[in-house]
User: Fold this.
Amino acid sequence: MAEFSNSKWSEPDFTQAYRNNADIIIVERKRLLSILQSFYMHFIFGKPERQVLDLGCGDGIAVYELLRVDSALKATLLDGSNDMLIRAKERLKRYDKCHFLCASFQDILNKRVILSNFDLIISSMATHHLTMEEKTSLFKIVYSHLNPDGYFLNMDVILSPSETLEKWYLQLWREWITEREATLKIDSHEYDGIINRYKDNTDNNPDRLNTQIESLQEIGFKDVDCYYKYGIFTIFGGKK
Ligand SMILES: C[S@@+](CC[C@H](N)C(=O)[O-])C[C@H]1O[C@@H](n2cnc3c(N)ncnc32)[C@H](O)[C@@H]1O
Assistant:
């Protein structure tokens, strides 16, 4: 199992570049976050105590969007990058019910961190850094740390089921970036190599959506489904 400290995410320059570019390179990022809010309001908001865990929280954007619809929720934000957590703390400084944990997925898998139980566990653009075996182990831990009727919602990139589809999905991604560049009047060619860099980065281990859905079902999650999909960008999850 590769340790977080050996990944690009342990380098502050790399995390800075992600923060600078995320709104452009993540397809329909605003839409993903608004679906997360809708999901939260539909399935979680009515519960008396709302405990949320964000795995690989980055600069805290997903929890921030949830706090905009429910400022009373309690959140734990976990990331291997201390640099990301500093930005998350800054973004969430107005909210006093946020708890920050500098730990890696490997720490979770090896039981080096102790987690409590949650009503909602989310992750955004992060679990594709694990192998499928590690993903399954993490999904099992997620299941064991959900309260009854709690939900897991994972927004992540996936591996296409075939080469033919992969070509089109990557083309869709390229078209999205081109559209964003036109809207924001960016003509620097800065994003030209982004898709190749994503494909070549050995930290990225996306797996097929079906494999991950089946893994959740085998673990015992109910209402497992893909809640949104745009090329390789997906939202999927299930209920305990
Ligand atoms: C693409 S960023 C996504 C950040 C944020 N969730 C978002 O949607 O903007 C991936 C995040 O996962 C974290 N990460 C990557 N591998 C990790 C690991 N093995 N353990 C913990 N965090 C990890 C990185 O530090 C980074 O903050």
Summary: DSSP finds nine helices and seven strands in the chain. The longest helix spans residues 163-183.
